[in-house]
Structure formats: structure tokens, C-alpha cells
Write a structure and sequence with these properties.
Blueprint: H1 18-28, H2 36-53, E1 59-60, E2 71-72, H3 95-109, E3 121-127, E4 130-136, H4 144-150
Helix pairs in contact: 2-3, 3-4
Amino acid sequence: MALTTTIGAVDADSYATLAEYQARAAAMGWTLSGTDGGDEINLRRAAVVIDSTYTFRGDKATAEQALEWPRVDGIGYGALAYYDPYPIRSDEIPAPVKAAQMEMAHLIQGGADPLATFDGAVKREKLDVIEVEYTGGKARPRFTAVDRILRHYIIGGPGQVGLVRA
């Protein structure tokens, strides 16, 4: 099933096109899945990860759009001017957002599962009649390359809350 990359579409499922992903892979020396269908699946999953993991500056341009981009300034007046010195038009997807999605798609293809459920780790020790059980959280993996690509567009970082001065 072909990707839907129409900006602001109600059925959009990817920021980057398959051709953009294949071109970036060639430029970066990546080996892709070997099938267009496999690469499209990785791009779709990566878009879900990007949209569900990061809190972007501004607001969605329309309530109907499927993905988090395009964005507006938070007041609804068009260009998102947070990425100095160039404003981002409300009808465009910044190149770094596409790059982050493609990076995540490549990581997913390599075996990363950023959508996996992480349960706490349990360790039980027993010595004679004494038994001790430890429960600790298992941290979610960090994708530093993606974090850095998106740093100008997000509020805080993954799992952080953005603060606004009154």
C-alpha cells in the first residue's frame, strides 16, 4: 500500500516519501529492507513513533490532519517562527522532521522497537528461609540521533513537560 504524504491530509501516514527515504539511505550508506513494502511499513511505524514520542512547538495546522505536522504558531496565525532564523510555513514539513522519521525507520529496520511495552524488571533472591524481591523500572530506549535532529522543534525532550513563562 503506497504511503500518503500529502501535507495536512486526513489520511497522511508519512512525512517522507519512499523516494526520499531511499535517497537518504543511499547517501548515508544504509541497507534498506529490500522491498518497497517493507520500507513503507518502517516509514509508517517511524511516523507513529515521532508523533507519539515528541511534543512539538505550536499547534497542528488543522484539527483534521492525521499527523502532527504541519504546525502553526500556537495562536493559529500561520508560520511557526520557533526555528531561528527562518520561519516554518504552515504548509510545509521541515526537512529535519523528515530526516528524523527516516532515521527512526532505519533504526526500526535494524531491530529497534520503540513502540514496545516495557515492564518493570523483577529480581528474586532466596537464601535459606529469607526471600527478597526487587522491582525496578526498565528504561525505554533513547534514540539520541532522532532527539538531536528534532531539538529545535520540540518542547523539552521525550517524556519531559514543557514550561511556559506567564
